[in-house]
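User: Run a structure prediction on this.
Assistant: Running it now.
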Amino acid sequence: MSIFSKIATGEIPSYKCAESDKFYAFLDINPVAKGHTLVIPRREVDYIFDMEDDEIGEFQIFAKKVATALKRAVPCIKVGQAVLGLEVPHAHIHLIPMQSERDMRFSNPKLSLPEDEMKQLADKIYQEFTRL
Protein backbone atom coordinates (compact mmCIF):
# COMPACT_ATOMS: atom_id res chain seq x y z
CA MET A 1 0.00 0.00 0.00
CA SER A 2 1.46 3.39 -1.01
CA ILE A 3 1.84 6.29 1.41
CA PHE A 4 -0.93 8.10 -0.53
CA SER A 5 -3.29 5.15 -0.11
CA LYS A 6 -2.61 5.23 3.62
CA ILE A 7 -3.36 8.97 3.64
CA ALA A 8 -6.63 8.46 1.75
CA THR A 9 -7.79 5.80 4.24
CA GLY A 10 -6.83 7.93 7.25
CA GLU A 11 -4.10 5.52 8.34
CA ILE A 12 -1.67 8.45 8.00
CA PRO A 13 -3.03 11.90 9.00
CA SER A 14 -3.37 14.63 6.38
CA TYR A 15 -4.80 18.09 5.87
CA LYS A 16 -7.91 17.05 3.95
CA CYS A 17 -9.14 19.56 1.36
CA ALA A 18 -11.74 17.47 -0.51
CA GLU A 19 -12.93 13.91 -0.99
CA SER A 20 -15.32 11.67 -2.83
CA ASP A 21 -15.76 7.94 -2.94
CA LYS A 22 -13.14 7.75 -5.76
CA PHE A 23 -10.75 10.63 -5.06
CA TYR A 24 -9.03 12.49 -2.23
CA ALA A 25 -7.26 15.86 -1.99
CA PHE A 26 -4.93 17.08 0.74
CA LEU A 27 -2.33 19.77 1.35
CA ASP A 28 1.23 18.98 0.36
CA ILE A 29 3.34 18.99 3.55
CA ASN A 30 6.31 20.39 1.56
CA PRO A 31 4.50 23.01 -0.50
CA VAL A 32 6.11 25.19 -3.15
CA ALA A 33 3.32 27.74 -2.56
CA LYS A 34 0.70 28.29 0.14
CA GLY A 35 -2.27 26.05 -0.68
CA HIS A 36 -0.27 23.51 -2.75
CA THR A 37 -2.69 20.58 -2.89
CA LEU A 38 -2.32 16.98 -4.05
CA VAL A 39 -5.23 15.16 -5.69
CA ILE A 40 -5.14 11.36 -5.83
CA PRO A 41 -7.36 8.50 -6.88
CA ARG A 42 -8.32 6.27 -3.96
CA ARG A 43 -7.61 3.31 -6.22
CA GLU A 44 -3.92 2.59 -6.16
CA VAL A 45 -2.50 3.17 -9.64
CA ASP A 46 1.11 4.21 -10.21
CA TYR A 47 0.92 6.05 -13.54
CA ILE A 48 -1.85 8.50 -14.33
CA PHE A 49 -2.04 7.30 -17.94
CA ASP A 50 -2.67 3.74 -16.74
CA MET A 51 -6.07 4.92 -15.51
CA GLU A 52 -9.12 3.95 -17.55
CA ASP A 53 -10.46 6.71 -19.83
CA ASP A 54 -13.62 7.29 -17.80
CA GLU A 55 -11.65 7.26 -14.54
CA ILE A 56 -9.09 9.81 -15.75
CA GLY A 57 -11.96 12.01 -16.94
CA GLU A 58 -13.61 11.86 -13.51
CA PHE A 59 -10.21 12.49 -11.89
CA GLN A 60 -9.73 15.69 -13.90
CA ILE A 61 -13.28 16.86 -13.15
CA PHE A 62 -12.69 16.27 -9.43
CA ALA A 63 -9.35 18.14 -9.66
CA LYS A 64 -11.14 21.02 -11.42
CA LYS A 65 -13.60 21.28 -8.54
CA VAL A 66 -10.74 21.22 -6.02
CA ALA A 67 -8.92 23.92 -8.03
CA THR A 68 -12.05 26.10 -7.97
CA ALA A 69 -12.31 25.71 -4.18
CA LEU A 70 -8.59 26.37 -3.83
CA LYS A 71 -8.80 29.59 -5.86
CA ARG A 72 -11.66 30.80 -3.64
CA ALA A 73 -9.72 29.95 -0.48
CA VAL A 74 -6.29 31.24 -1.53
CA PRO A 75 -6.29 34.48 -3.51
CA CYS A 76 -4.34 33.88 -6.71
CA ILE A 77 -4.43 34.66 -10.42
CA LYS A 78 -4.79 31.01 -11.46
CA VAL A 79 -4.31 27.52 -10.08
CA GLY A 80 -1.62 25.62 -11.96
CA GLN A 81 -1.68 21.87 -12.51
CA ALA A 82 1.31 19.56 -12.74
CA VAL A 83 1.59 15.81 -13.07
CA LEU A 84 5.02 14.54 -12.10
CA GLY A 85 4.82 11.47 -9.93
CA LEU A 86 8.25 9.84 -9.81
CA GLU A 87 8.68 10.24 -6.06
CA VAL A 88 5.54 8.34 -4.98
CA PRO A 89 4.23 5.30 -6.93
CA HIS A 90 0.64 6.57 -6.87
CA ALA A 91 -0.93 8.80 -9.55
CA HIS A 92 -1.40 12.36 -8.36
CA ILE A 93 -2.02 15.89 -9.56
CA HIS A 94 -0.36 18.93 -8.00
CA LEU A 95 -2.61 22.01 -7.79
CA ILE A 96 -0.64 25.17 -7.02
CA PRO A 97 -2.03 28.69 -6.50
CA MET A 98 -0.11 31.00 -8.84
CA GLN A 99 0.68 34.69 -8.83
CA SER A 100 3.23 34.04 -11.60
CA GLU A 101 4.59 31.06 -13.49
CA ARG A 102 7.58 31.03 -11.11
CA ASP A 103 5.23 29.63 -8.46
CA MET A 104 5.12 26.34 -10.41
CA ARG A 105 8.86 25.70 -10.09
CA PHE A 106 9.41 22.62 -7.99
CA SER A 107 13.00 23.76 -7.44
CA ASN A 108 11.68 26.72 -5.39
CA PRO A 109 12.39 26.54 -1.66
CA LYS A 110 9.70 24.57 0.13
CA LEU A 111 7.52 26.46 2.58
CA SER A 112 7.22 25.50 6.21
CA LEU A 113 3.82 26.55 7.52
CA PRO A 114 2.73 26.09 11.15
CA GLU A 115 0.36 23.19 11.81
CA ASP A 116 -2.52 25.47 12.83
CA GLU A 117 -2.18 27.47 9.59
CA MET A 118 -2.17 24.26 7.52
CA LYS A 119 -5.30 23.04 9.32
CA GLN A 120 -7.12 26.36 8.84
CA LEU A 121 -6.16 26.43 5.17
CA ALA A 122 -7.30 22.85 4.55
CA ASP A 123 -10.58 23.54 6.37
CA LYS A 124 -11.17 26.67 4.27
CA ILE A 125 -10.56 24.76 1.01
CA TYR A 126 -12.83 21.94 2.22
CA GLN A 127 -15.61 24.41 3.06
CA GLU A 128 -15.34 25.99 -0.39
CA PHE A 129 -15.34 22.53 -1.98
CA THR A 130 -18.56 21.55 -0.22
CA ARG A 131 -20.25 24.71 -1.54
CA LEU A 132 -19.66 23.75 -5.18
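The helical segments are 3-9, 53-73, 115-131.
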